[in-house]
Amino acid sequence: MAKRIWLNERQFMEVADKRGLGKELATRERAWNLTSWGLLLPDPDPVLRKKGQDITIYRELLVDAHVDSTVQSRQSGVTAHEWLIEEGEGSRPARKAAEWIREVFGEFAMQTLQNEILEAVLFGYAPLEVIWEKLEGRWSPTRIMGKPQEWFAFDNENRLRLLTRENMVEGELPPAYKFLLAQHRASYQNPYGQRVLSRCFWPVAFKRGGIKFWVAFTEKYGSPWIIGKHPRGAPDSERQDLLDRLEDMVQDAVAVIPDDSSVEIVSDANRGASAELYERLVEVMNAEISKAVLGQTLTTEMSSKGGAYAASQTHMEVREDLVDADKTLVAGVMNRLIDWACALNFGDVARPVYKWYEEEALQTERAERDKALNEQGVRFGKKYYARIYNIPEAEFEVAEPAGPPTGKPEKKTDTQDDADFAAGRAGFTPEQQAIEDLSATSAGAADYLLQKVVETLLREAESAENLEELAERMLTMYPELDVTELAELLARARFSAESWGRLMAGAQAEGGAGGRA
Predict the structure, then answer these.
(1) H helical segments located in 231-308
(2) How far apart are CA 181 and CA 192, in angstroms?
(3) Cα dihedral 217→218→221→223 (10° resolution)
(4) What is the rounded CA–CA span in Å between residue 214 and residue 202?
(5) Total Cβ atoms within 10 A of residue 432
(6) Is 491 helix (H, G, I), strand (E, B) or coil?
(7) What is the DSSP letter of 192?
(8) Residues 6+ away with beta carbon under 8 Å from 438
(9) CB-based contacts of 295, cutoff 8 Å, min separation 6
(10) Domain residues of the chain, as ranges?
């Protein structure tokens, strides 16, 4: 028999409240608004609602030269970066999946695909249809095509629907694995996303109006006025004839008029200031377009007043923040495609990841830091380099860097080495032997610079008559050499030479006495 649990009123209310925590209460079906009456959500874009048109009007904005240049600048900030497919952690199937994804993505026109994904920034969202083919036993995405936003809408559950001729009111839900959807700053209230071109509409409209009036003003006031004067009471035919001649004069700068008529050329110096108003209007509207697309202005135009370096750096950082957000958008769509491809072909396997290489400037700073740490004795492993610099471990090896020469002579532990060493000194002059002794005995403690000049000293010592001449030659060859160090070197060499001479003289004297005895 089940045990009964008695709850008081407070405990009962707590249980009832907790049961409702997992339910969604604020839904479009329950909310009292016009959007709950239909299946498809209306586009909340304020410009489209006021103009009563669809998203096609935003495509016309791309004809404007300034809009197109700013859009290209923002998109090129993404497409100029290198990408890679990082292998997921796991077993051999994960490695095979990554290799296959690299082959498939290598066939894509990646820059075109990235630009089609980035249309979501311009139009709020971008649907891309995926065409699958069975190749070598695997379902492979062979084509990915961006489709017009006008063909789609969102329903009450924020799901993408295709508006077809058969179902233009409610639309059709596309099958799974068929449409990739990129959305720019979308929300529950607005699944259509935030459109950058929506913020460019009115600046472009005002700019076009200003240019229209500017051209008309230039045509009307760009040249001086030509005023013809005729005698009072002249018939209309003569006045019309004079007007025709003045029109010809505007074209050819030549006119023939009666001697009782006159022509006066009048110009207005203040008209230039009026023309600057239209020019200023165009500049302000271009600046507004730049801020809408790039978040700043200095990368597309320079003000007549100039800009401070600090301001330009700040503006570039703002643009880079937008580029980073766009890169995240592209990577999210590509990783969704990877998930679909792996689900269709590999099942439950660690997914490869579409990633971007780090910025070159950041890599350079990190490399300089790693170099400094390495010189201080810090050693990094392959996993560190693979993780930080995005290089597969199989493509490089970490070798121990060669340190600076210690200057210590090789230790002779073999009798044959000693014999070879003595044989090599047999033909040396006392100066050469002294220098050889010096290089062997003082290399461990002498400065590294002195070791470098030993070989040169040996060559010069063969032709120098004495140590003074050798010193002059060395100062000529190495003017930057410290005189104190050179003097110390030569002093040691002189001491070694003199000691060697005394030893040789003593040995010859003992040999001669023994012979006489």
Answers:
(1) 236-252, 271-294
(2) 11
(3) -170
(4) 18
(5) 18
(6) helix
(7) T
(8) 454, 489, 492, 493, 496
(9) 315, 318, 319, 321, 322
(10) 25-196, 198-299, 358-401, 415-516
Computed over its alpha carbons, how large is the radius of gyration of the chain? 43
Q: What is the pLDDT of residues 65-119, one digit of tens each?
A: 999 999 999 999 899 899 999 988 877 889 999 999 999 999 999 999 999 999 9
Which pairs count as long-range contacts for 139-145, CB under 8 Å and 24+ apart, including other chains? Answer: 139/341, 139/344, 139/345, 140/104, 140/341, 141/104, 141/337, 141/340, 141/341, 142/107, 144/108, 144/113, 144/116, 144/180, 144/337, 145/116
* Per-residue model confidence (pLDDT) at position 255: 55
d(CA 483, CA 475): 8
- Between CA 464 and CA 473 the distance in angstroms is 9
Q: Report the 10 Å Cβ neighbour count for 517.
A: 5
**Residue 281: predicted pLDDT:** 87
Q: Residue 514 has which token pair?
A: 């023994």
Residues ≥6 apart with Cβ < 8 Å to 189: 44
| C-alpha span between 80 and 327 (Å, rounded) | 11
Residue 480 gets which letter from DSSP?
A: T
Give the pLDDT score at 279. Answer: 82
Q: What is the C-alpha to C-alpha distance for residues 72 and 66, in angstroms, rounded to an integer? A: 10
CA 456 to centroid of chain Cα atoms: 50
What's the first-to-final CA gap in the chain, in angstroms?
133
Instruction: Tell me how far apart the alpha carbons of residues 408 and 155 are, in angstroms, rounded to a whole number.
Output: 81
As given in the structure block, the two tokens for residue 31 are 């909310």
**Residues, the chain:** 517
> Which pLDDT belongs to residue 177?
95
Chain position carrying tokens 């913020």: 199
List, for the chain, all residue ranges whose pLDDT scores fall below the cut of 50. Answer: 1, 36, 299-300, 303-307, 309-312, 361, 404-412, 414, 420, 431, 438-439, 441-449, 514-517
Identify which of 495, 498, 496 has the alpha carbon closest to the alpha carbon of residue 506.
498
pTM: 0.59
Query: Tokens at residue 462, please?
Result: 């063969």
CB 98 within 8 A of CB 89: no
As a whole number of angstroms, the distance between CA 249 and CA 308 comes to 50
Q: Is 440 within 8 Å of 426 (Cβ atoms)?
A: no
- Per residue in 389-413, is it b (16+ CB within 10 Å) or e — as a string? eeeeeeeeeeeeeeeeeeeeeeeee
The pLDDT value recorded for residue 397 is 80
